[in-house]
Amino acid sequence: MESKNLAQTINPLYLLASLALGTIGAAAFNALRKGSSETAQHVFEENMSATASAPSSPKRPIKKHAINKLMAKNANENELVKELKNLEEITCEIERVSNLAYDLKLQVLPLNVNPMLGNSNYRSVFGGEGFLPETAFVNHDCYILQHPNFGPNDLLSRTKRWLRSGPRKHLLFSPDEVKAGIVVVGGLLPGLNVIIRELTMCLFYNYKVQNIFGAKYGYNGIYNNDWIKLDPKIVKTIHHQGGCYLGTARSKFDGEMIVDELAKNGINQVYLIGGLGCLKSAEQLHEIIKSRNLKISIVVIPKSIENEIPIIDKSFGFETAIEEAQNPLKAAYQETHSKKYSVGIVRLWGSHTGFLALNASLAFRSVNICLVPEFEFDVYGEKGLLQYVYQRLQHKGTCVIVVAEGAAASLRDCKINDKGRDASGNVKQGDIGLFLKNAILEFTREKGLNAEVKYIDPQYMVRAGKANSLDSKLCSQLAQNAIHASMAGFTGFAVGHVSNKTCMIPLNEMNSGNYANRITPSNISWQRLLAGTGQPSFINNEQDI
Questions:
Q1: Buried-state track 47-75, b at ≥16 Cβ within 10 A, e below 16
Q2: Would you state the torsion angle of the CA atoms of residues 203, 208, 210, 216, taken in this order, to the nearest 10 degrees?
Q3: GO: which molecular function terms (predicted)?
């Protein structure tokens, strides 16, 4: 009956086509109708066959460097195989994340089922496993857009697609073969202990990994073979403390030696927690490991108290730093409003970018001037900073200034000498806060104004505390998703939030230099700040620039 009705429906169309298009047009239409019927029959037969035997998807063109031959034996059963093959297809637009299956040129992947896969509708959470339904696992071809908002001139094809992170149904690593190493490099940041705890808890309870170790004091712990064994009893309450349970340090980087020590100790999963320098060193480690054909995954959980990490929405610990900065800002405000002709200066972290100074100022709402590294300014001159502060003191009697440490490099008409470099090679900039204090005192005294300047430097107080609730949640998500990806064999990537969704970002993209995270004049938060403070550019010859 259905076939008859279909024919009855098409025949009138055929007659109309004959009249409108002539014999050739009607013949073409008839051929199209015939092709459509054959296609419909083909799809029907495929669906019937799929219901009976569930064959694999039709093969599509594969990239030249793909090794799809190897995984054919269990491709129909192994979801990880399907995902890896999909990532290698020419038509796949997701940014490729390295996987040990490709790096090691494995012929057949093991069928390791994720311990968290539930066997029924009843989910037991007491053992830490068997509590996720199949729908909770990430399917292949899932991605996160770098820019979710599009305007009239924007094209979807131009935005990056990052691989979605989350638990995979099938794993490359068997839990009993994993020996994980956690390494924290660089400076302190709120949330480090939450990361360490969550990595340990997730590996131990969710994936049944028994061998979890932490390197004492960053890379130095690897060089000196100074590891401590971690378990839930040890890390149970460390998230209630600030600082870093494992200790951290800035040290020279020797990739070959690090890989030697990792291989000697049997570490096959490395979870690095660090900033821009760590991202670069992790990429080198990944390349060395790949060249040696070692089964070691490298994952970075990026951190930065000034929020300078590219691509991701924000670093963990950043929100806590904004919150901790409110107390010194309150102190500066109270000091300046308790005396006439008083200036309060607060220096915050931000050697390359002023996001912390900007957001702390927006949160406090009573800052009069905010200076950041992204925008140059003049100290002296008719439109310079000192003249503006002097005029404000005359009219308002008070002035609260927030300055990022990196603003020392943004002075146009004077210079503050650097204080050398730290162990990681980073420039130690001169104290911009102390410089401004002395400059304001000298300038106002020359003008006959008996001003007072209170300088507060709370940098180490801001970074040493424990994470607030928001950052604790963020840390937990990052740690868990780092493990999910590493257990599936992914390596050479950083895990982070993009558009508020966790994803995997290849280290070569993070280190490419194409995604510098800086404040721009059009930044909406910067525009809000200028609207609130009313501060000018502090540039004398602005009309000539």
A1: eeeeeeeeeeeeeeeeeeebbeebbeeeb
A2: 0
A3: 6-phosphofructokinase activity
Edge-first strand listing for the sheet containing 501-506: 143-145, 161-164, 501-506, 493-498, 297-302, 269-274, 179-184, 211-215, 227-229
**pLDDT score, position 124:** 52
Q: Average pLDDT of 314-323?
A: 97
Please name the residue that has the structure tokens 């099938």: 170
Lookup: tokens for 301: 């959980």
Cα–Cα distance between 109 and 170 in angstroms, integer? 10
pLDDT at 389: 98
State how far the Cα of 22 lies from the Cα of 24, in Å rounded to an integer.
6
SS3 string, 223-273, reads HCCCEEECCHHHHCCHHHCCCCCCCCECCCCCHHHHHHHHHHHCCCEEEEE
CA dist 459 and 428 (Å) reads: 14
Collapsing DSSP to helix, strand or coil, 411 comes out as strand
Q: Residues 238, 197: contact at Cβ < 8 Å?
A: yes
349: left (phi over 0), alpha (psi -120 to 50) or beta: beta
pLDDT tens-digit readout, 114-151: 999 876 545 555 556 668 888 889 988 899 998 877 77
How far apart CA 101 and CA 491 sit, in angstroms, is 10
Residue 4 neighbours by CB under 8 Å, 6+ apart: none
CA separation for the pair 44, 303 (Å, rounded): 52
Order of all β-strands in the sheet with 342-348: 369-371, 398-404, 342-348, 452-456
| Residue-level pLDDT at 196 | 98
Alpha helices in 308-384 (DSSP H): 318-324, 326-336, 355-364
